[in-house]
Design a protein that fits this description.
alpha/beta; six-stranded parallel beta sheet; five-stranded mixed barrel; 15 helices; globular; binds 5'-deoxyadenosine; binds iron/sulfur cluster
């Protein structure tokens, strides 16, 4: 057993929910070895970076962050001779041995496939000094076997698949997260039941593409079975992320009409509204097919709030292609859209595609889309005014401690004043009813009607 007793660590997490989940496992695992999590780097003897390389900005930011902690002194009384700096996650997986060359004060590098090795690598770095780099191409285990330290006791991530087989031409994920592997349905159901018994109210099923769950185990996707099995645990709120439109089945869509605890929100990344660009991205659906899925979802449950991801400026995107994206966004009326400017990732097919659209044109397209998204979200949210929504409370607003913040079933942020005699800490993790009287683009506000 590595000796990490009383060693303090702090975690920096970047990127997607899979990384957030990995960080919860890392924290749980290190605490099971006796280490103690702290919030501030000044108090930490060990700094751990769980990294993302999906766009170039994330890379650049990481290098800056790691460099910036170099001269911060160790906490007083530490027996270590230097702060241990560990880089894991997707950049760890991608760069491996090259990282200590770029950042000499890095002690440990691990990847996406071996987070359970971190305590051992750390112990070796502490006792022997030097750089300890270990990257595995693929793993037979799931990080779900490790203890988790959940950020909120009432909400949990539950990975059902890891990795991705889709190879969208712009995307680095299949290269750093490996091939798709599904967990056994019984294991997922058992984990979900244990979470519910532990007081969890909200479970989010995780995978790069949850809709292709089971292809490696049963020969066909059986994501609908996972949804039904987890729904049966009686969890109050069931969500999932992320979906690929090409694998979203009618059976799954139908569950929006029949499973009461499947929350009325769906994140369905479209990436582009142009068939030509979708083809170049290797997305394997057309805009028309995507829109027919949206219609089917709305038919199953008209209350579903839709969100999506869009890439602007994919190589060769013309004004006409962009217009098709703009029109699609307008037509769907999303409650939220995550817009990204295309960022070439070395080693992906798109990185070698001709790309001669001037930066200013891409920026103009991006800005006009962001304006549209804001208008759409504002218009979409007006439908909640006058309705009373169940809100799962997270705590007090950062700006005003007399205002609570939580999420509606549609996953929209809700604010409400905390009634006299109640406090945010006591309300956190409970579900309250809020009558909505105002809707902005990014949040709703109203008054609590009863606890
Ligand atoms: N450039 C810009 N955006 C990207 N995404 C993935 N790869 C890239 C890239 N190379 C976006 C996609 C994906 C989201 C998580 O990140 O929209 O759905
Ligand atoms: Fe990347 Fe496409 Fe896989 Fe999503 S489905 S992780 S965009 S390759």
């Amino acid at each position: 057993m590595p000796h990490l007793s009383q060693k303090t660590f702090c975690l920096y997490t970047y990127g997607c929910q899979m990384n957030e989940h990995d960080s919860e496992r890392i924290a749980g695992m290190l605490e099971s070895h006796g280490a103690v999590e702290v919030d501030a780097i000044e108090d930490a003897e060990i700094a751990i970076f769980v990294t993302c390389c999906i766009r170039e900005a994330a890379d650049v930011r990481l290098m800056g962050q790691v460099a910036s902690i170099k001269n911060i002194p160790l906490p007083e009384g530490s027996a270590l001779s230097k702060r241990m700096v560990c880089i894991g996650g997707c950049i760890g997986q991608r760069d491996g041995d090259a990282l200590p060359d770029k950042l000499a004060h890095v002690d440990v590098v691990f990847g996406t496939q071996n987070i359970e090795r971190l305590p051992y690598l750390l112990e070796a770095a502490i006792s022997e000094g030097g750089h300890h780099v270990e990257i595995l191409e693929k793993s037979d285990t799931f990080s779900t076997d490790l203890p988790a330290k959940r950020e909120h006791p009432w909400s949990a991530w539950l990975p059902i698949t890891v990795g991705c087989n889709n190879f969208c031409t712009y995307c680095i994920v299949p290269y750093v997260r490996g091939r798709e592997r599904s967990r056994a349905l019984e294991d997922i159901a058992a984990d979900a039941a244990a979470l519910v018994a532990d007081g969890v109210k909200e479970i989010t099923l995780l995978g790069q593409n949850v809709n292709s769950y089971g292809r490696d185990l049963y020969g066909e996707p059986r994501f609908a079975d996972v949804l039904r099995a987890v729904s049966e645990t009686g969890v109050e709120r069931l969500r999932f992320a992320t979906s690929h439109p090409k694998d979203l089945t009618d059976e799954v869509i139908g569950l929006y009409a029949t499973l009461d605890n499947l929350m009325p929100s769906l994140h369905l990344p479209v990436q582009s509204g142009s068939d030509r660009i979708l083809k170049a991205m290797n997305r394997r659906y057309t805009a028309e097919r995507y829109l027919s899925l949206i219609d089917a979802v709305r038919e199953a449950n008209p209350d579903v709030a839709l969100s999506t991801d869009i890439i602007v400026g994919f190589p060769g995107e013309t004004e006409q292609d962009f217009q098709a994206t703009y029109d699609l966004v307008k037509r769907v009326g999303y409650s939220q859209v995550f817009t990204f400017i295309y960022s070439p990732r070395e080693g992906t097919p798109a990185a070698s595609m001709a790309d001669d659209t001037p930066r200013e044109i891409i920026q103009r397209r991006f800005d006009s889309l962001v304006d549209l998204v804001q208008e759409n979200a504002y218009a979409h949210n007006q439908r909640f005014v006058g309705r009373t929504l169940a809100v799962l409370v997270e705590g007090a607003s950062k700006r005003d401690e007399r205002v609570l913040v939580g999420h509606s079933p549609h996953n929209i942020t809700v604010h409400a004043p905390i009634p006299e005699g109640m406090d945010a800490a006591a309300l956190a993790g409970s579900t309250v009813m809020v009558e909505i009287d105002q809707a902005k683009a990014w949040y709703l506000s109203g008054a609590m009607v009863r606890a």
